[in-house]
What we know:
The protein has helices spanning about 5-10, 10-25, 45-50, 65-75, 110-115, 135-145, 150-155, 165-175, 195-200, 205-210, 215-230, and strands at about 35, 55-60, 80, 95-100, 120-130, 175-190, 240-255. It has a 7-stranded mixed beta sheet. It is globular, with a radius of gyration of 19 Å. The chain is α/β, with parallel strands linked by helices. Helix 2 (about 10-25) runs parallel beside helix 3 (about 45-50). Residues about 1-5 have low confidence and may be disordered. The longest helix is centred in the last third of the chain and has 18 residues, at about 215-230.
Amino acid sequence: MVWDPQQYLKFSGHRLRPAVDLLMRIPDLAPRAIADLGAGAGNVTKLIRERWPDARVTGVEGSAEMVAAGRKAAPDVEWSHEDLGHWSPAGQYDLIYSNAALHWLPDHAALFPSLMEKVARGGILAVQMPRNFTAPSHVLIGETALDGPWRSKVEHLVTPPPVEGPAFYHDLLAPMSANIDIWETEYLQVLEGENPVKEWTKGTWLTRYLDVLQGEEKIAFEAAYGMRVAKAYPKNAAGQTLFPFRRLFMVAQRKG
């Protein structure tokens, strides 16, 4: 995927809130080494650096465009441009933090225990992932993909939801954890502008599909999805669009 930092940050306030909520649930500790996986444009990495100014903070990000934006937002952070799926650090971290990134990676049954092994004993794994994939915002992307002349090019992208339920992650992490806290929050996001849910998904999940298409076909696909999603999320009397969005959180402390 080619990430567009400006498109992603159109809704930076709404996107930042769960990241801060996760950050505030991490207990007080004095980490020496912190990794921010899927650090994006660096707006959250900067907050991590501010909370633990004495720690060595590394932002790990697979998008060159996002790394460039991150280096501007948080120049005092070490930046590593690498695929999260192949992240293999030389040592362990006292805190591994990841906001809205790990849902892009497959095989969570293997991924999450592997990440926990990269946490130092007594350290913390803190993760937030969207779990809105059965909502109209995301289901309609798949429906659009399967209902048009572009089907053969994009149908392979129509896959089951990438994030499991809370109990799945509890069962994975509990054997390695001294303490584990897992919860879900559904944010009622009040959006402004023309067809804002389309603009929201265009910064993330929809990008997977648009990257595959070119020219008029790409424009037509976005327009077809836009019509569907605008009907699913109509404006209210005040001209606002209410967009409920569910997210899954976990904070697990590795056994000492």
